Structure formats: structure tokens, C-alpha cells
């Protein structure tokens, strides 16, 4: 933990072990830093206290590894590196970016991530089409794993939270609206990709989630390498398992599936470097979106979001944002209200498809997860 009052009255003099007696969510290095920070903290203390009461819900997952991936990593008895190492996937393919070891690699990496494999046995990953069509909308990870016939000790949710975010965003954005379910093409503008640029193969799962629908995703953000600006990527296969003799190595996207005759799905990704409000005109020459999705947005932290929020308001289409914690969403909602003059349309809610591996070194005594909470306009 860092001292919440760092920089407010000279340098920190000790580790931040003095927790606020009201909310318990922040800590200080000294009494003087706590007192000097109070004018700011008193505006958030009660709100953070309420969020602390909901911590147990954040750590609730159906997986056999849930305690290890949540409490043990949060309390530093385990790490993201050790979690991945125990499963034999540390530093491999798409997994290398799920711990700090991959940070230095990401800036220089130019591999074709849409061709990466799961680096897992067939029984632990969705390397081919589903055995059956979804009978109902998926509402949580347990539903998804049962539908895809995956065991609850499989770690694939650590990567699949990206396509499941897109899937769930459409569920909450178009709830009660007709027409979306029957569309044959779905255009999504995906703002601010970072780590997922090195895990694009996982987006092949959108074909299973949207049977019979052609998915077009424009990934727009400053993290996209200059040399890949404008690149079009057609994903016509699921990410492969590690089995050399598995049919996923030779089959097309839907072959071998019990529902292949019902599916004509495919995913097209296009990469666009720059801020969304700067690239919007270029993008909409090709497609006007049904939905905007912005993962781990950090709206309150980046002023560059303000013109993008104004643009989305003018476009008058639904937009769903996620963030690492409830407090970040609250601050974002306040920013959006100041720009649009309206409250958020989709209230802040816990994402049932958040990544089930806690973020290390949280700034609060509240666990943070990628794509943890959602809200929308």
C-alpha cells in the first residue's frame, strides 16, 4: 500500500500501515499525512466504507482455484507469476502478459497474437465450437463453463474475460430492446485496448457467443503500434489447444461442432491507432457501431476521455465501460455527468465475467480485478 496522503506534507516517513478508522480502505505513513489528507478523504470516506462491506462479493468465483487467485494473491501469499507457473503457462503465448514479467515484452512484441494457442490440453480450453447452442443468455462464469463443457479448474477465464465483456455488454446495453437478437452483423467499437492486443486469439470465442452473426470489432487506442494502424484481422478459427492430433489443428472454425450447420459466424478485427474522437470519422466510413465498449477505462484519470464522451453523447448509441474497482466507476460517472449533463443510463454493477485473478498492489484495501465493474451511457 502507498500512503494515501503522500506528497501532501513532505515525504513519507514510514510504510503506510495506519489505516483510516472510518472506511479502512486507505492507509497512511503518519498522523500528519492522515490529517493533511482529511479534507480530500472526507468526501470519499463513507462511500469507501460501503464498498468495503461488499468486498466478499468481489472474491466470489466458482473456480477451484478461487481462494488462491483472490485472497492469497491479494495478501501476497501468492503472486500472479506463481499462479501461472503452477499451471505450466507462465511466460507462454497469450499468458505471458498476465503478470509483470510481460510488461517489458508488450512494448516490443510484434508477434501475431491472433494465431496464438491456449498452451493447454484439449479438455481445459475451448479450441473448437460448442456442442450445443445456448438455450438461455449466459449470466456468470459457471453458466459459461457448463455450456462449453470446461472443468472449473481450467484457467481460461483469465483470457476469456475480454470476449465475455463484449458479450455481456450487449446483454445489458440492449436489454428489452428488439432487433439486436436477429441481426446478422454486429459492429462494435472497442476503445483503449492494451494487453488484449497480445491476446487477440481469445476473441475467436465471439463466434460461439454470437452464433450466426458476423462480428466486426474496431479496436481503437494509442497503444496500437504505428506499423499495425489500419491492419485488418480475420479470425476464422478458435485458438488451438496444445494437442498435436486434436481436430482443432485441421478444422475450420465451426467444423466438428454439433451446431456447425446453424453457425456462419466470423470475427473481423481492425486496429486503429489514436484517440477515438480523433479517428471517429475514419472508422465510421466503414461502419457505424451498434455499441461502444471501453474496458478498464479509467475515465476520471485521463483528460483525453472528455472529448470522447462528448462524441459518444452526440452519436446517441449505447456505450458500456468497465473498470478495476467500484470507486473508479463512481468517479467516472461523476465525470460523465459533468460532460453530458445526465446521469449514467446503466448503473454501476459488478461484472459476473470479470477476470478471476486479483490485481497485485491495489491502491486500496479493496481487491481490484480487470473488468470488475460495469456502467454505461
Automatic annotation (TrEMBL):
- InterPro entries reported for this sequence: Mss51-like_C, Znf_MYND
Superkingdom of source: Eukaryota
Where does the signal peptide begin and end?
none
Q: Tell me the keywords, alphabetical order.
A: Metal-binding, Zinc, Zinc-finger
**Stretches assigned to the MYND-type domain:** 1-45
Quick check: keyword Cell inner membrane in the entry? no
State a single Gene Ontology molecular function: zinc ion binding
The cross-references to PANTHER family, in alphabetical order and at most eight, read: ZINC ION BINDING PROTEIN
> What protein name does the entry list?
MYND-type domain-containing protein
Amino acid at each position: 500500500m502507498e500512503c494515501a496522503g503522500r506528497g501532501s506534507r513532505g515525504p513519507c516517513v514510514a510504510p503506510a500501515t495506519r489505516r483510516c478508522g472510518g472506511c479502512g480502505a486507505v492507509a497512511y505513513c503518519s498522523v500528519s499525512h492522515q490529517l493533511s489528507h482529511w479534507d480530500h478523504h472526507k468526501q470519499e470516506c463513507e462511500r469507501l466504507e460501503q464498498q468495503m462491506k461488499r468486498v466478499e462479493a468481489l472474491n466470489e468465483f466458482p473456480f477451484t482455484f478461487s481462494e488462491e487467485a483472490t485472497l492469497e494473491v491479494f495478501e501476497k501469499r501468492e503472486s500472479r507469476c506463481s499462479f501461472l507457473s503452477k499451471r505450466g503457462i507462465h511466460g507462454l503465448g497469450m499468458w505471458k502478459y498476465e503478470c509483470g514479467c510481460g510488461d517489458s515484452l508488450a512494448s516490443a512484441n510484434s508477434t501475431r497474437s491472433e494465431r496464438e494457442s491456449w498452451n493447454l490440453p484439449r479438455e481445459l480450453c475451448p479450441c473448437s465450437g460448442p456442442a450445443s447452442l445456448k438455450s438461455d443468455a449466459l449470466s456468470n462464469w459457471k453458466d459459461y463453463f457448463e455450456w462449453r463443457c470446461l472443468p472449473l479448474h481450467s484457467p481460461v477465464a483469465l483470457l476469456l474475460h475480454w470476449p465475455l465483456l463484449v458479450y455481456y455488454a450487449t446483454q445489458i446495453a440492449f436489454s428489452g430492446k428488439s432487433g439486436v437478437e436477429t441481426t446478422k452483423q454486429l459492429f462494435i467499437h472497442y476503445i483503449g485496448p492494451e494487453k488484449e492486443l497480445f491476446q487477440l486469439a481469445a476473441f475467436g470465442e465471439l463466434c460461439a457467443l454470437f452464433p450466426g452473426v458476423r462480428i466486426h470489432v474496431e479496436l481503437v487506442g494509442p497503444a496500437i503500434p504505428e506499423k499495425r494502424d489500419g491492419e485488418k484481422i480475420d479470425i476464422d478459427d478458435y485458438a488451438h489447444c496444445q494437442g498435436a492430433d486434436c481436430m482443432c489443428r485441421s478444422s475450420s472454425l465451426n467444423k466438428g461442432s454439433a451446431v456447425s450447420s446453424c453457425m456462419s459466424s466470423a470475427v473481423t478485427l481492425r486496429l486503429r491507432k489514436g484517440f477515438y474522437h480523433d479517428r471517429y470519422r475514419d472508422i465510421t466510413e466503414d461502419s457505424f457501431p451498434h455499441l461502444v465498449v471501453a474496458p478498464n477505462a479509467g475515465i476520471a484519470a485521463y483528460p483525453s476521455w472528455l472529448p470522447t464522451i462528448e462524441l459518444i453523447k452526440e452519436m446517441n448509441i449505447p456505450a458500456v465501460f468497465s473498470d478495476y474497482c467500484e470507486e473508479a466507476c463512481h468517479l467516472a460517472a461523476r465525470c460523465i455527468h459533468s460532460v453530458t449533463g445526465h446521469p449514467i443510463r446503466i448503473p454501476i454493477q459488478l461484472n459476473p465475467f470479470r477476470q478471476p485473478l486479483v490485481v497485485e498492489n491495489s491502491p486500496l484495501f479493496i481487491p481490484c480485478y480487470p473488468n470488475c465493474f460495469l456502467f454505461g451511457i
